[in-house]
Amino acid sequence: MRLTPSRRILVLAAALTAGAFSSSLVHAQTTVPVASDRAIQLSEFTVNADSNVGYGASETMTGTRVATKIKDLPFQVNIITSEFFEDFAMFELNDNVAGYISNFSGLDQGGGFTLRGLGSTYQLRDGFFRLGRYGASNIDRIEVIKGPSAAIYGQSQPTGIVNIISKKPRKVARQTVRLSTGSYGTNREEIESTGPVGHSTKDFYVFTAQLYDRTYDTPFAAQHNKEAYLAWEHDFDPTSSLLVQVEYFLSVHHAIGQSLPLIQDPTTKQILGIDTRFAGINQGGPTQNELTRGMTSLTATFQKQFNDVWSTRVSGNYYRARRWDLGVPTSNYVSTTGQLTRGDTLGKGRIIEDGGGLQADLLAHTWLAQHAIENRDLFTIDINDYYRYDPSLKMNGPAKTAWAPFRTITVGQPITYWTAPFDYSEAYLTRMNKNRTTVFGGLFRHQSAFFHGRLLTYAGMRFDHVVFSLRDLLNKKQAHFTSNATTPNLGFNFKVRPNIATYVNYSQAFNPSGQHATASNITPNETGWGYDYGIKASYFEDRLNFTLGGFYIVKKNITETDYDPDTGFVIYLPEGTDLVRGVEFDGTWRFSDRFMVGGSFGHVNSQITNLGYQRMAVGRSPANVTPTQAAMYGKYNFAGPLQGLSVNFGVVYRSSTPTQNPNAGDHYDSKGHYTGTTGEWMIRVPAWAVWTGGIRYSFRGGDEGRLSHTIALNVNNLFDRQYLNGRSFGEGRAVYVTYTLSL
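Above: the chain sequence. Below: its structure as tokens.
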């Protein structure tokens, strides 16, 4: 959707309002002093926002729930800051962002991602559970804690977790308007205003809003995003503060893209590959294909440092999430003749989610042996609640009969789309559950620093009590049960030299038994354990920083189908296991204040070690796990006559990747005996590398030099490489122009 006159007026009005408000604040500073960003003492729970290293950061709170230098951790944490999003024109959080972190891919708006060889849908927003739905305009940074150490937040995959950190109010006033336009009909308008509230030296705010529209290569496909975010912080005194955050997000996808079908030989039934001839075809049509996600949330956080020893952080969160989808299911296969048969019914579904949580952290910071030993003891109590209602319908009756002639698509032939509205009177329910999961957890974690900080040791234990209430309204079944999980973690970080540290970490993790359970199928907790080990180094006065490490992770109790040897009926048993091993490298090098480069490399060997009766899948990799991926990026700021000009580049490489489940196409008889395969599990996409580049020019002018102007040109897929990302084509070359005005 193009920028309409009404939206241009809206953006211009917002810009002028922000400029006027900012100007009044700037002039007010001549009589009323405004606190700087460092005027308030940072608590143990606050990361220094100025601790950036290149596009990353040197501090994290995700790793240990308190502010800690990344180089002091006994495991790996990767961070990408909002500066990276801006320089590389990343208008939304997706797989393009994930590609620059080792062994991390598949990030999407539904909450899914792949990390260290296993898929997950469990993410955090400022430490609280979240199922995707992120707007890039209000995000300060992405923190990825790798390995089972992520269990300090409770349930997680043993390969790690993603924590999205929101923007916080700044003490110095700044107003920004940003306009972007370019390929795929892209239009993006963003405003941000932050600083003191009026003339106050105790109240600060940040407000962001964004409108984002774009289209795709697939006909009729389009996306429309609306985002708004407001945060207010009140500093009671230099040792205590209250932060309140409100967020709204709505993403509407029309005619969403679908995976390309597979080619199946009609005679042998063998799967031959991916049929790219359907890349330019929209199987659903202009009206019968939609996916909409919405989110509103409220978070409040109170921090207090009582004295030199004790400090606390108490935070509460509530959210409402909604998903509406309407679509035509498509066949997974297509014959060698180039014909595709779409699904037999039109489906409509809703997912209604509500939840929230409470977290209370108490930290004791003490010294022993005349300050020779430094200790930090963290006590945490938290509650997380999640409710989901998911009615789904499929059309039936006359509508289903009328749809039948429209089902077949032939390459090169016109497509007839079904445009009739969804008939609720003829529809039937396919799913309707009301499920609630409540987790009551507690954590104790001890950290000690010996020999003037040369040896750091970590040890902790977490206990979670999970309460499930599962109701299957369609089949009139319900189940109420509980489960417990105890997850220890321990590790050390030893500085062999002042700039080189070795680390080892052992941790356990769990996924609640109701994560994939229904009222008809109760499963035990999934569990996992693993090791992290490696070195963290810095050279040239901390200008070169990198982590080189390895990991070994086991996931157990995965529910799989099996056969009862006595009855021959299908049963569900927690006998599935996965084994993941790999290596990682992440680093940045600031050659000077003007030039920096960064990069990552990851190799993972992810294998199924038990899949129930489907024994032929043992040794194969899960779907969409890239064995090897690498990335490199850099930025150069010119000096002298070209002051204000900068260029940046990036390249992401991914090796050949399996797209199908490890058991896809295998056949077994009623007793679980293997009878043959179509070879579907062997389908892979070729390796690819995609480059991006950008150039930016910033200058000051107007209002006595208080105005800052930036013009940026970004090109994604610089060499217009055609590549498959999963069973979908990646986007071709895309050019974007962005203008930013700041005061």
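The helical segments are 5-28, 82-87, 95-98, 398-403.
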